[in-house]
Amino acid sequence: MVPVTFAEAYLGAEVEIGTIYGPVRAKIPPGTQSGQRFRLRGKGVRNVRSTGSGDHYYTVQVAIPRVMSTAGREVARRSAELYPVDPRKDLPRDL
Q1: pTM recorded for the entire structure
Q2: The dihedral of CA 28, 33, 39, 44: what is its sign?
Q3: Where are the alpha helices (DSSP H) in the chain?
Q4: CB of 15 within 8 A of CB of 5?
Q5: Distance CA 21, CA 41 (A)
Q6: Which residues are within 8 A (CB) of 55 and not within 5 positions of it... i.e. 6 or more apart?
Q7: pLDDT in tens, 43-91
Q8: DSSP letter at 81?
């Protein structure tokens, strides 16, 4: 699990990912969703039957600030305007 900020997920960023070969810089594309999974080709465990290495997978988790502030509340209100559709519209209503 790789935590990223809302800004990094929304705008895109380059973050450091720890692998068995050491840290690697990886791109987080703009619009990345929490829970989205990515692959670093050839950065996984070495395959003993071949000459190559496997892939390293990581999942992004959007981290929300724990500290509440007036500025943070205003940013959250303004970012709510980015959602033209209810993100829960397809959830079942009756269980």
Answers
A1: 0.81
A2: positive
A3: 6-11, 70-80
A4: no
A5: 12
A6: 39, 40, 41, 42, 43, 44
A7: 999 888 887 889 999 999 999 999 999 999 999 999 999 888 998 899 9
A8: T
Give the pLDDT band of residue 95 (cuts 50, 70, 90).
confident
Residues 11-29: b if buried by 16+ CB within 10 A, e if exposed: eebebeeebeeeeeebebe
Q: What is the pLDDT of residue 6?
A: 93
Give the C-alpha separation, 89 to 86, whole Å: 5
Largest CA distance in the chain: 57
d(CA 47, CA 53): 5
Amino acid at 60: V
Q: For residues 83 and 25, which has the higher predicted lDDT (pLDDT)?
A: 25
DSSP class of 69 = -
Which residues, at least 6 apart from 56, have a Cβ–Cβ distance to it below 8 Å?
Answer: 17, 19, 20, 24, 39, 40, 43, 44
